[in-house]
Design a protein that fits this description.
12 strands; nine-stranded mixed β-sheet; 3 domains; 5 helices; Ubiquitin-like (UB roll); three-stranded mixed β-sheet; about 260 residues; Rossmann fold
Length: about 260
Amino acid sequence: MNASVHVSRQINRTESSTPGKRRAFYELVLVILFAGLMSWLMSWMLDPATLPIKHVRIEGEFVHLSPDMLQQRIKGQVKGGFFNIDVSAVRDKLLDEPWVHDVSVHRVWPDSLQVFVKEQIAVAAWKNTGLLNKKGDYFAPEKSTFPDGLPVITGPEGHYQQMMEKYYSLQSLFAPFSMQISHLVLDERRAWTVHLDSGLKILLGRRDFEVRINRYIALIPQFFGDKLGNVETVDMRYPNGFAVKWRPGFTPVNDGDGAL
């Protein structure tokens, strides 16, 4: 009787384990099939012949750039298919062009790239070597492409943003008097000089910059009035005053009320 019960239990265990083994076998087969499918799919997607890029559309507002020129620049990078084209290489190649400020590249199903290019906007020239945008970022395109009439900023190399901020600060002070800065200089001695588009040169020196420029704004335009156009240089480097150099050929005359 005991032997019969023992055999029966073994048979029951064998029968109960069979569905589990089958399930594991089927799951293994599915995993192998899925892995094979994914391998084939990845191989298909990375094949340059799969959905090759046929169209590149470049958009943006251009003055110094053109879509045709930019198309030629990335011609060597537009290769491969929709899935495996290196969009970072396309973007980096365009960013090598000095007049390009920023680039975004998007795939467009099934065979196109859409490229958005933002052009640099120059607001000042840095010495005679390059240009600055409004954030003080330096870029150096061909000199033949430099816009005319830009203010020139000269200062220590690498101090682009600081000099740009100083330019904006000064220009906001001069604007109410219809004065425009043509050249802002911070020389090797760290002395400041401001040139205005009227030809007037303002010497501010190395110390007390804020005090001296505020004294100029408070005194000079009102003191000289319409004769300011005859002033060549105003030297603000004196503790409590200033010195003036007149333009050649002009002789100041006292008009009787104390004004020159």
